[in-house]
Amino acid sequence: MAHFVFDSDLHSLLQLDTPIPNAPPARWQRKARETSGPAPSPMRAANRSHSAGRTPGRTPGKSSSKVQTTPSKPGGDRYIPHRSTSQMEVASFLLSKENHPENSQTPTKKEHQKAWALNLNGFDVEEAKILRLSGKPQKVPEGYQNRLKVLYSQKATPGSSRKTCRYIPSLPDRILDAPEIRNDYYLNLVDWSSANVLAVALDNSVYLWSASTGDILQLLQMEQPGDYVSSVSWIKEGNYLAVGTSSAEVQLWDVQQQKRLRNMTSHSARVSSLCWNSYILSSGSRSGHIHHHDVRVAEHHVATLSGHSQEVCGLRWAPDGRHLASGGNDNLVNVWPSAPGEGGWAPLQTFTQHQGAVKAVAWCPWQSNILATGGGTSDRHIRIWNVCSGACLNAVDAHSQVCSILWSSHYKVASAAADETLRIWRCFELDPARRREREKASAAKSSLIHQSIR
User: Fold this and answer.
1) Are the beta carbons of 410 and 434 closer than 8 angstroms?
2) Do the beta carbons of residue 419 and residue 393 sit within 8 Å?
């Protein structure tokens, strides 16, 4: 009998389907207890009986139509990086790089490879962050001691008040074929008119391309073999094109009639630069002289400016027509008046800081006394001048020869290169409202040049 009692007690202790006394509750029991809520207390029961006589706030038995929303603050603690800024390829490269020994390279070669990687990737691979968990912290002002205070006290700029960055494309809007264009730094072979027509000199011919319609027209071709077009320039108002040739001629063409109006010969060498100032056409030649031509009269040659010892490759009139800037192969920049002084034609300013030929010359469109110039291969600098005081306001190293400078008064830029292509760039696009106002203002101007050219 005692043996039977012992077996029954042992069997009851070894059974797994009976609840274990003093054991912690199971997970499903805890979940059921949390969802059902706490047991009602005596105080809540008293309040419920006291408010039984009140009118119910809603119809009994009617379910609430209020949709439950997701909590505004997530309860998770996961750190999820920004996928758009994660550099997974860089991570793979750096992990595989550690398994391979570095080849012995010279410091110059390493710097060259680093520069190439920076240009191709847009960031330094060695310093790139693989997983970016948040945006960049705000920059601490220089000289500020407590950096953490600045970091946690400043607020991010709201999206509505942030200034939008101007987008400058890295690819051209359109590419045009330019066969047999001369690869000569000193020539000016491309010019864009106010009528949205692009003139291009291709060896011994001049072609016109309408940016509005896309039509291409051959305007002229040199008669003598061996001659070539060395410069082109549109008149500011009107539809006339000035053409400089290697045979020291300056031709004036009516584009609408496709007719040559006159041929002006006063230079002794090729005409490499042209610029208009109302009815005065200025031309610079390889001899170093600048001639003023009055296109209204038969005796067109009205003035000669002698301030350069070598070829004049850059020529620009100021927007107000008071000054003429000239750059030459003698590394000089001269600023001339529009009328001769008491001692004749003499430059008002002569800038000698450039160490190379000066072809890029451009006036500021909104401040007529500011001039920008760019030097050639030996100089590689862009300099900003105040022509009234003669002071150099700023100098920027371009790390390459400067062929042209254009202020941002127009939004399309045309460039010609030795690969025989013309590229149209959308760099400084105007606001449509301001553009319409400017077009109305230019259309309202009346010019007497159409009636006065002989």
Assistant:
1) no
2) no
Is the separation of the CB atoms in 406 and 413 below 8 Å?
Answer: yes
Name all contacts of 248-251 with Cβ < 8 Å and 24+ positions apart: 248/285, 250/274, 250/281, 250/283, 250/293, 251/220
What pTM, to 2 d.p., does this model score?
A: 0.59
Please, which contacts does 416-420 make with residues 24 or more away whose CB atoms are closer than 8 Å? 416/178, 416/181, 416/189, 416/190, 416/200, 418/181, 418/183, 420/177, 420/178, 420/179, 420/180, 420/181
Q: CB of 432 within 8 A of CB of 440?
A: no
> Which residues have a Cβ under 8 Å from the Cβ of 354 and sit 6 or more positions away?
331, 332, 333, 373, 375, 379, 381, 383
Most confident of 76-90, 133-147, 357-371: 357-371
Query: Do residues 394 and 383 make contact, with C-beta atoms less than 8 angstroms apart?
Result: yes
Q: Which of 418, 364, 356 is nearest to 387 (CA)?
A: 364
* Long-range contacts formed by 82-87: CB under 8 A, 24+ apart: 82/132, 82/133, 82/134, 85/129, 85/132, 86/130, 86/131, 86/132, 87/128, 87/129, 87/130
Tell me if domain 174-306+411-447 and domain 321-407 are identical in fold: no
Q: How far does CA 35 lie from the centroid of its chain?
A: 60
Give, as one character, the DSSP assignment of residue 56: P
Report pLDDT for 237: 78
Q: Is the distance from CB of 240 to CB of 260 less than 8 angstroms?
A: no
Distance CA 233, CA 281 (A): 9
pLDDT at 10 over 90: no
Cα 92–95–101 angle (5° rounding)? 130
Helix (H, G, I), strand (E, B) or coil at 94: helix
Residue 42, pLDDT score: 47
Chain position carrying tokens 């159409």: 450
**Structural domain boundaries in the chain:** 174-306+411-447, 321-407
pLDDT at 51: 47
DSSP string spanning 313-365? EEEEE-TTSSEEEEEETTS-EEEEESS-BTTBS--SEEE---SS-EEEEEE-S
Q: Which residues contact residue 283 at a Cβ distance below 8 angstroms, ignoring those fewer than 6 apart?
A: 231, 242, 244, 250, 267, 271, 273, 274, 290, 291, 293, 315
Q: Which residue has the tokens 């860089």?
A: 90
Contact between residue 230 and residue 251 where contact means Cβ atoms under 8 Å apart: no
Answer yes or no: are the C-beta atoms of 289 and 317 closer than 8 Å: no
Q: List C-alpha distances in Å: 451 to 210, 237, 239.
A: 25, 12, 12
- CATH number for the region 174-306+411-447 comes to 2.130.10.10
Q: What is the C-alpha separation between 313 and 329, in angstroms, rounded?
A: 7
101 vs 215, which has greater pLDDT? 215
Q: Does domain 321-407 have CATH number 1.10.8?
A: no
